[in-house]
TrEMBL record:
UniProt KW keywords: Cytoplasm, Phosphotransferase system
Lineage: Bacteria, Bacillati, Actinomycetota, Actinomycetes, Bifidobacteriales
The keyword Cytoplasm is assigned to this record: yes
Cellular localisation: Cytoplasm
Keyword Cytoplasm found: yes
Classification via PANTHER family: PHOSPHOCARRIER PROTEIN HPR (PTHR33705), PHOSPHOCARRIER PROTEIN NPR (PTHR33705:SF2)
GO CC, alphabetical: cytoplasm
Database matches in InterPro entries: HPr (IPR050399), HPr-like (IPR000032), HPr-like_sf (IPR035895)
Name of one Pfam family that matches: PTS-HPr
Main location: cytoplasm
Annotated ranges, domain HPr: 1-86
Protein name according to UniProt: Histidine-containing phosphocarrier protein (Hpr protein) of Pts transport system
GO BP annotations listed: phosphoenolpyruvate-dependent sugar phosphotransferase system
Length: 86
């Protein structure tokens, strides 16, 4: 079983270096695998170049899939993190 949610980026700069770095640091706190998808591409949220390579801009929607031992907690906290930072 996995947890999945969508999120619309509101940061005027999109998912640029600073928020991407914060996102990766947050993802690395969990045992679960966290995959971020946008425009047909999916990347590991624990890899900075993958996240930045998605080219997410303000108003873009991303899908986040969380799977692993702590997926319920990880998905809830990760979604809250995105709302507060992106």
């Amino acid at each position: 079983m996995s947890q999945e949610f969508t999120f619309t980026v509101s940061d005027p700069e999109g998912m640029h270096a600073r928020p991407a770095g914060l996102l990766v640091a947050k993802a690395q706190q969990y045992d679960s695998t966290i995959i971020v998808s946008h425009d047909g591409k999916s990347v590991d949220a624990k890899r900075i170049f993958g996240v930045m390579g998605l080219g997410v801009k303000q108003g873009d929607e991303v899908t986040v899939k969380v799977q692993g031992n702590d997926e319920v907690n990880a998905a809830a906290e990760f979604e809250q993190f995105l709302k507060e930072n992106l």
